[in-house]
Structure formats: C-alpha cells, structure tokens
C-alpha cells in the first residue's frame, strides 16, 4: 500500500491553533511599538521644526514663527517665515493618537533675528493616548532645545 505525503487535518488544526495563540500574544507588543514610534516621530518633527525656525531666523535676520494650527497645538503646527523671505511656510500634523500642547499658553513661538525666543522660554508636551508616558520639549529663551521623558500624560 502506498503512503501519501502531506499533513492530516488534525496536524493542520493544531498548527493553526498554535499560530493563533502566538499572534494574540505578540499583537499587543506590536501595537505598543507602533504607538511609541508615533510618539518619537512627532517629537522629532517638532524639535526639527523649532531648530529650523531658529537657524532660519539667524541666517535671514528676520523673525520666524512656529505657530499652532487653527485648533491648537494638538491639531498641528506651522513654520511661518517673514513675508520677504523666499522660504515657503510648512505645515506639520502629529501622528495618530499623539497630542501636542504648550504648557501655560497656546501661543506661537517667535524666533528673533539673533535666534532668541520672543517672550521667554517655552515648554511643550507630546503625549500618546495609549501610552502612560510622553516627552517634554523645553526651549530656552536663547533657543536651545532639550527633550526629556514625561512620566505622566
């Protein structure tokens, strides 16, 4: 009698059950990694925008503004150049589930021609709705940017 090659139905069902268990264990970890990456990417975008605004204000000797979107920092932000500048304004939006807020006020940040921040220092927080922590972005009145982990969002 010839023996056929292949898997039995029971073997296939066991394999599918084991795969389903492994996937259900791994999925929450993958979601947390995706949420963490969204938080980091939004933080990098905001820090990059602030650094660009400062360097452009110094190089063009004009005011450059980082302003919140119409609905506030949580809806995004823009880098706005002086009307005489050749640069075009740029808009940014936080990643899904990430909120950005400015501590104490919802005002924009204006970098003066020497790179300093008009109105003093600024602090922004970047948080993800599904993570317990976030990032704090501090901008000194001279325009230096530092970031730190925020434990409670």
CATH architecture: 3-Layer(bab) Sandwich
String of helices and strands: HEEEEEEEE
Number of strands: 8
Strand order of the largest sheet: 3-2-1-5
Count the domains. Answer: 1
CATH class: Alpha Beta
- Which residues form runs of ≥5 with pLDDT under 50? none
Major sheet summary line: 4 strands, antiparallel
Overall form? elongated
Keywords: Cell inner membrane, Cell membrane, Membrane, Methylation, Transmembrane, Transmembrane helix
Transmembrane segments: 12-30
Membrane topology: Single-pass membrane protein
GO cellular component, one term: plasma membrane
Descriptive overview:
This protein is α+β, with helices and mostly antiparallel strands and 153 residues long. The protein has one domain (10-150): minor pseudopilin epsh domain (minor pseudopilin epsh fold, 3-Layer(bab) Sandwich), CATH 3.55.40.10. Helices cover 34% and strands 29% of the residues. The strands form two sheets. A four-stranded antiparallel sheet has the order 3-2-1-5, covered by helices on one side. It has a four-stranded antiparallel sheet with strand order 4-6-7-8, with helices on one face. Strand 6 and strand 7 form a beta hairpin.
Label this structure with key terms.
153 residues, minor pseudopilin epsh fold, alpha+beta, 8 strands, four-stranded antiparallel sheet, 34% helix
Q: Mind sketching the topology for me?
A:
Elements: H1 9-60, E1 64-69, E2 72-80, E3 90-92, E4 98-102, E5 109-111, E6 122-128, E7 134-139, E8 145-150
Antiparallel strand pairs: 1-2, 1-5, 2-3, 4-6, 6-7, 7-8
Short description:
The chain is α+β, with helices and mostly antiparallel strands and 153 residues long.
């Amino acid at each position: 009698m010839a023996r056929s090659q292949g898997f039995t139905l029971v073997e296939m069902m066991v394999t599918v059950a084991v795969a389903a268990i492994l996937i259900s264990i791994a999925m929450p970890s993958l979601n947390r990694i995706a949420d963490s990456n969204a938080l980091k990417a939004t933080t990098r975008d905001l820090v990059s925008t602030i650094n660009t605004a400062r360097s452009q204000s110094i190089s063009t000797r004009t005011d450059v503004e980082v302003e919140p979107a119409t609905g506030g920092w949580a809806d995004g932000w823009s880098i706005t150049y002086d009307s005489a500048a050749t640069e075009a304004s740029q808009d940014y939006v936080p990643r899904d589930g990430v909120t950005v807020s400015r501590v104490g006020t919802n005002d924009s940040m204006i970098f003066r021609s020497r790179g300093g921040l008009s109105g003093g220092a600024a602090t922004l927080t970047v948080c993800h709705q599904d993570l317990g922590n976030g990032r704090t972005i501090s901008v000194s009145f001279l325009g230096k940017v530092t970031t730190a982990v925020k434990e409670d969002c």
